[in-house]
Design goal:
InterPro entries: ARM-like, ARM-type_fold, Exportin-1/Importin-b-like, Importin-beta_N, XPO6. Belongs to the exportin family. Its main location: cytoplasm. One of its GO terms (molecular function) is small GTPase binding. It is found in: Cytoplasm; Nucleus. The protein has 1130 residues and is mostly helical. Among the domains are: 197 residues; 187 residues, no CATH class; 118 residues, no CATH class; 99 residues; 139 residues, no CATH class. Helices cover 71% and strands 1% of the residues. The chain contains 50 helices and two strands. A two-stranded antiparallel ribbon has the order 1-2. A hairpin with a 2-residue loop joins strand 1 and strand 2. Helix 5 runs antiparallel to helix 6 and helix 14 packs parallel to helix 17. The chain is globular, with a radius of gyration of 38 Å.
Amino acid sequence: MQASDESSLRALENLMTEFFHSCTTNERKREIEELLNNFAQQTGAWRHCLFFLSNTRNEYVMMYSLTVFENLVNKMWIGLASQDKMEIRSCLPKLLLAQHKSVPYFIRNKLCKVIVDIGRQDWPMFYHDFFTSTLQLIQTPALAPLGLMMLKTTSEELACPREDLSVARKDELRKLLLEQVPTVLGLLTGILETYWDKHSVIASTPPPSPTSREGVELLGSLFQGSQYSKLLCQPMAALDNESHQLCCLVLECLAHLFSWIPLSTSITPTLLASIFHFTRFGCDLRTKAKTGPLISSPSNGHEVNKADRARLGVLAMTCVNELVSKNCVPMDFEEYLMRMFQQTFFLLQRLTQENNAHTVKSRLQELDESYLEKFTDFLRLFVSVHLRRIESSPQFPIVEFLGLLFKYTFNQPTHEGYFACLDIWSVFLDFLTTKIKSRLADRESVLNRYKDALVLLLREVLNRIQFRYNQAQLEELDDETLDDDQQTEWQRYLRQSLEVVAKVMELLPSHAFSTLFPVLQENLEVYLGLRQFIGTTGSSRRLNITAENDCRRLHCSLRDLSSLLQAVGRLAEHFIGEVFAARFTDALAVVERLVEVTCYGSQTGLYDLETAVPSVLKPDLTDVHAQAVAALQAYSHWLAQFYSEVHSQNQSQFINLITSAVNASSPLLTTKVPEKLLLSASHLMVSITATVRPVFLVTLPAVQNIFNRITTENQSHRLPQEAHILVCRSLSNMLLLPWPNLPESEQQWQTRSNSHGTLVAALTREYRVLRGTVNIGARQPGLDNVKAVIHHTLPVLRDIVDSISSESTKSRQICYQSLQESVQVTLHLFPVFIQQPDVTDEMLAFFLTLFQALRVQMGVAFTGQIIQTFLSMFTREQLAASILHEGSAGCRVVQKFLKILQVVVQEPGQAFKPFLPSILSLCMEQVYPVVAERSSPDVKAEMFELLYQILHQNWRYFFKTSVLTSVQRGGVDDTMENEAQFTAAMQAFGQSFLQTDIHIFKQNLSYLESLNSKHKLYHRKLFRTSMLFHFINVLLQVLLHKSHDLLQEEITLAIYNMASVDFDTFYSAFMPEFLNGCQGVDTNQRAVLARNFKLEQDLPSFTQSVQRLVNDLRYYRLCNSSLPTGTIKL
């Protein structure tokens, strides 16, 4: 054997070298792979691998041999002879002891994992010394690193094992490990204490300096006489390399143990104190080396460098965060938690300590980034999970803590760090708001406690968004590139800051306002003062500010004004509702100021000036103007409330505000204005017409002016499409939306109806002409122009319809009256463009909006005509051609068509019932066959929703009897009609559960559950007798294949709802049949599976049984996957 093993080893080494050689072809690699796989599969291959491991230095061979062992232990262990198992259990640990220092670390780790895998199977019954030998290793100084590696691997593999174990074994392992926890934690505490003490004593204590008492004094005020103040002010330990490695391993072990150990008294104060000693390595700066980069230490080796010290701090903080992230805190652990927070805030003081050598910012800048991230994580967890527990404790100085958090936040060295801290403040402000709402009685005392902190926070956040105070940092922010949320880094910075400002405003409204408004006023003075610098030469107007310094200062002031205007807009919601009267004066001051600024901007036309630095100042001026208009728009709800409060009194103040706002917007609605400003003005007009709805709006000259401009414009002066749509919407709103505070008799509907007809006629002038000029079949040369008219007109009409969809019947009647001719034209043009999906898409989008908003107004006859046209145009070939191009316009056309049908089948009453058979047959015979075997997710989703709506809204089409009747008759007499179509629909749902698309799966499962809760689908005779078990079977198979793991809960609930129709039959008939049909398990295992599935009828027990069945069935199949025999020589 020895000689043949020798030759096999040489052959294997050669094969491995050849396999990884750059010149080896893929073909040859496949041959070698097959040979190696066959060798590994043969019985007794492990003996050869044991020889290879003991006698080779080739890393590839070692890795291959260990993979053979891993495969053997995890997949074939049950079938292995007990003598062989004993031999492996004895040989591998010896091999590890002999070679752990000489082999590369990844080989050592892999060998550890194989041994732990054996323990996972055999400890304690057949491998009783598995855990004790690990503990012995840890206690032997020379072997402690190896023992810790084994312990960490054991924690990873046994505490949360994968599914290749039965549920009973998983529970047993968890129990066994929990029994060992106190011993393990005791050992690890001992190591940390020993190394700290050993190296602290040796470390020479520096002479006292003026700053060395900083910690003690500060702590004195924070935690009177806390024992940790002395403990944590000891000098730091100076670890050599070996001790550092060992302490890192201990902390890694603890971090993993803490991830699954419940909080309990096993986690002792001594252990916590030891961990906290090491958290200091992240925040004590000892960067200046005395002799070169390494400091000699009296103990063996060299002291570790700064990066390694930081790593210790990071690992220690990871341990702390694992503990703090647990929400479930037993009573007897609360005191420990308090100690932990005290210790961490000692560190927070260290981090935010100013002294002669460092500002806080420079201190934080010198720290390791990961350490700072971990520390911020800790603060976030503390505030979000534990603040409610600790905030009212007399031992915890919450106000001082907020002071430290404030310093920490506003000295962050990176933007990301600052964002993360702002998030923490947001969570704190939410906590405070909730607390105050729940305790109205002592609201004032709670607020007073925090007022100073909130005032400081507000002022500092406002300063941080202003170039005046923070120019260097703000200029670093990118304002070009959009992130996943479609905002630039600068916009995100501003948005997050303004969220904090708004939350403080909610708590301290008057204070926040009196802080913000004067700052806004100050910047406005600069902006409003620009008028004196405008000079005119010939036809051009110019801003006469040219000195570089002045331009720079103006740029900063304008950027700040823009941000402050956004801040003022963000606060609008805090002036309306119940507080309207109380805060009226403040709000009026804001709105008057905003109206003044927008009027000034429009009158002076600042966006149109020539400037000394056009690339900077021109966008600045445009942006300020746009933000002022947008901020005014934010107050439209306030204006609406103002209108309803004063409508019967003197309205002059209100009328002046609205008139000025419209006068300021009107000149901006032209093509000469930059698009950003044009859109801002368009949105303001929409808000005034939709939210405020003043009765006098139509009579204003500025509005008449807009009306004339839009209705007479030609192609060359047409606004960009988005702005054009918004302006048309605002004009339509003025004529269609009911005026508030007025009775029906004073709404002047007749006059408004005539005006609306005129407006729409003007907007569709070119479109309505098309009816007489475009015919089916003729390939006319001017079709591109026709398409342009369609693409321009239909979105405008669609938007007008959409904006009145939730309004009164009168508004909708007038709207349809105005649109009637255009609708007829569209239906006439539809067949002409059926082969051009981009046009059909536009038309169907229009029809979909019509169906959703105006189907009653269109009447049954005309609606029927439209549906009939569509059904006849969408032949199977037409549908197939469209659907095959996924993501194309054709696909979108089919989606919209199906959406229209969804609206039709949901209509109550009998009007559209005659269409049901043809819609069903289109769905099942034309669309479904095309999408069934393809992914087509978008069309599929719409098609299944249509099917669901047909079933849900038209249940009586299939089942004549009501639920009540069938219950009274004992559920037997289910009179069915259209059974074939119902069965086909159910089969389509069933088929979708066999496919990989998880979104369709989730959607369809929820549809079935909904049909069951609303119509008792699972109880219906046809479903119960011929479909129920098929569905349960499919869902169980999905759980077994783990293909839709994200939906485990939903699938299990659906199985429960189906089984609960008749639990007796489920347990007596379905389960035995299901288990008998299961491949890959023997009779004995089937019996165990059946026995473990408890005959319970409540959901939690049933869920547990299903999870156990799925887990154990997979486990048995894994065990039983048999091995090919025969010997293969290398």
